[in-house]
Amino acid sequence: MMNNTNGTAPYREFSSMCFLFIPSIIVSVLGIPGTLITMRFYGKQVKKSKVATSLILTSLAVFDMLTLLLIIPMVGISIHLFYIDGWKQAKIFALFNAISRSPRNCSNFMLLLIGIERLVSVAWPHKLSVIFTKRVGIVCVVIVCSVITPITILPMAVEPELVAIQGTEGKYFVRRLPQININIDLYNIFYQMTIMLYFLVPLGGVFICNITLAILLLKRYRRDRLGRNQSTITPRQARELKTTKLVIVVTIIFIICILPLVVIFPIQTTSGADIPIGGMLLIFPLSMLLESITYSMNAVVYYIGNGTFREEVRNTITTLRKLNNQHQVSPNNTVSTSL
User: What is the spatial distance between Cα 339 and Cα 337, in angstroms, rounded to a whole number?
Assistant: First the structure.
């Protein structure tokens, strides 16, 4: 027999765990400047470029920025879970969770489009300008924002509440209440579609594209070395090898950061499984931290792999320093003529 509980004693040991959200806020705040520079850098290239790359990268930066900004209020909503007087999920938690995940879903699909574009640029470089035109990019962004994301996020907005359950041995678990507002079978169908569109399609697609891209780059690097019998690496080969290593590292980080909440949590909660309350209170801040790292790392990737972007960052820092110096030299040097 398992019962709902509102006792105070079992939860006191978990109240201090709310401080685990602090790293998420720090990472989000630190990721905002780099994301702003990314928006400015690729935004300036949209009009000049005939392919969709700059447009998609700019859209990706915009959605990453919205994600990082929404993580901060999402922390405030999530702190309700750590109340000393019991597990409490705010009434607007499901709705705000859906809102905060909308730009994340768009960002994930932008990553998928970029992964496909990079794959095409390596496998069929002569077809890139034909397949990924700017018009195609605009259509893709509009479809993701206006069609795919609303369909994906809607079931999250009507998720039943998570409640605390006391087991027969006195241990406490978290269980999602059954859906009573809409038809349960219809809800399950839509939620499974949500898992497919939010997790498997974009994230699985990004993983497949990056692994395939790394394999193609390694094969081309090996073919060029063997065909020319070179004992030294040319600058072009060095850049491709660096890009290959970067793609592999980014893919590994991507998997590590996305796995906890994106895969484990939805499967457990929709299956009705009882999750130990201590584990759930650890999953929430940990997954939020890993996701904040994921959506703030693109600027770091561009800085490592793109020399022009590095120059943009340096110019931005130089400009900010000059503005700061001008601000410090305030007009205090004026001479007063009053007696």
Answer: 7
